[in-house]
Amino acid sequence: MVPARLSLSARRALWAWAFLAVPIVFYVTIRLYPAVDAFVMSFTNWNIVGTRAFNGLDNYLRLFGDPRFWTVLRNTFVYLGAGLVVSMGLAFAVAYHLDKVRFGHGFLRALYFVPHITTAVAMAWVWRWFYQPVPVGLFNDLLVAVGLPQQPFLRSTGQALFAILAPAVWAGIGFQIVIFLAGLKAIPAHYYEAAALDGAGPWRVLFEITLPLLRPTVVFLTVTSSIAYLRIFDYVYAMTLGTGGPLDSTKPIVLMIFETAFKNFEMGYAAAQTVVLFLILLAISLLQLRLMDRRP
Amino acid sequence: MTRAATRPSAAVPRHRSQARAAPRPGRILAVTLLALGGIVMVMPFVYMLATSLKDNSEIFELSLWPRHPTLDNYAQVLGASGFPRWFFNSLLVAAVTTGSVLFFDSLVGYTLAKFRFCGRPAVFVAILSTLMVPTEMLVLPWYTMSKAMGWLDTYWGLLFPGLMTGFGTFLMKQFFESVPDELIEAGRIDGLNEFEIWWRICLPLVGPALSALAIFVFLGNWTAFLWPLIAVADTRMYTLPVGLASFSSELQTEWGLIMAGAAVATMPTLVVFVLLQKYIVRGIMLAGLKV
């Protein structure tokens, strides 16, 4: 009896390792080793053709002394801050009302969701077209039609970042709405029934029942959306023809990494930038764990 | 009350009382605003399609209905540029990646959920830790690796980073955990080996999770931009997003052609969405709440 059981569990362990053999090779060579390699690379001076020469913290010191890095970091956090506030606010408003609509619910949800699954580069060009001056661009045509002055949009250092953020919010909001809807649906009906019996108005229900019970959803969405906005790239690249212009005013950190590594081939310097991005993302993930732990 | 008496089913509240409590005019206003917002959301698609069907004489008109609809832009995009090849490249990369992810993520998820063996926690933590590392950090070593191995400008170079995902592995693990052990025991008594138990008994039970994962992975690869932009310099090896970006940057102001190109890149995802809407939305809810 005992030897038979032992051999069964040993056989199962063999099967398990057989199942895991190829995946372990993959995760070690394609995921774990490159992550370590990026860290190591960040302490070297390497222009891809020569040999790697360790230079200690030089890349990091150079980065923190580089005014372009601070511009880029500021841009990245403007994308994050403005994108997060606007998208979460809009998504919650839509989901909150859509949750109460029965007629055409699925159809309306589809209209809001469909931008989320489309190719960013393609839609970036549609929006780039909208932003063109009269007579090409839709937005300026509309502005002029109602008697307002034309706006430079993508040509202005003050407006371009927000002109790029708009389609990013447009594309991301469908995901947030769907997750909010799922969270709203998960709130047990008896809370609302009790509130109705107590004669609570809609605002009190919103602030004292819906929002507190929605807390896990809000934390989840805040973290996933923050990470998405910190990693913004496709829309910026496509709408500024890969430049992050005008004058770096729209350049996020991922575009700076791309340029440093694949235009200037300063791999060590680029690796240091990816490590900074990694640390920022890590901090946000850890914050999520802490917020999730604390129960209301 | 009389209604409840004549139709007993009406006595059971079918919707939340919250829904019925909202004042009527407010509801109508809310629905109207929601519908308007929904129309605004799809306007970029409508304009993209309308413009792609216009000829040059009316391209600067804002009308949504082309007076002389023409497929010239599409003929030019598909005939004279690399679009058919890029389309094929994207399809191939997305299909192979999806197949690989479905197979390996569900196999690893199953192993982590249903096998108890020495070393399991280490494997679990190792895969979990890969979720923490952003792609942007890995593309540098991937590039140097591909350069050294001669993988640049090849299909393998495009798809190797995505062959398995930590996200999918944990999604599948969650679902396999709810498969009862008795079924696995029964399979063993029937003389199936462990692979057959997974393939023939357990896998069919997690169909909804598999289809959700398939849709995420396919769409994610179809729209992927950063790595294909890095991994490929030969225009014949471009994927659609990379090809579209370079095509549009070259043309700059040929908006009819650019919109036709954008439509070609977008159309498959729109078709997939219309066909599978229910599964996509359900899948997002499933994954968003599970992981």
Automatic annotation (TrEMBL), chain A:
Its main location: membrane. PROSITE patterns: ABC_TM1 (PS50928). Pfam families: BPD_transp_1 (PF00528). The chain crosses the membrane at residues 12-33, 77-98, 110-130, 160-184, 205-230, 267-287. It is found in: Cell membrane. Gene3D superfamilies: MetI-like (1.10.3720.10). It comes from the Bacteria. Residues 73-288 form the ABC transmembrane type-1 domain. It is a multi-pass membrane protein. Belongs to the binding-protein-dependent transport system permease family. This is Sugar ABC transporter permease. It comes from Chelatococcus albus.
TrEMBL record, chain B:
The chain crosses the membrane at residues 28-50, 86-110, 122-143, 155-176, 197-219, 255-276. It is found in: Cell membrane. Pfam families: BPD_transp_1 (PF00528). It comes from the Bacteria. The keyword Endoplasmic reticulum does not apply. InterPro entries: MetI-like, MetI-like_sf. It is a multi-pass membrane protein. Keywords: Cell membrane, Membrane, Transmembrane, Transmembrane helix, Transport. Residues 87-276 form the ABC transmembrane type-1 domain. Belongs to the binding-protein-dependent transport system permease family. This is Carbohydrate ABC transporter permease. The lineage of its organism: Bacteria, Pseudomonadati, Pseudomonadota, Alphaproteobacteria, Hyphomicrobiales.
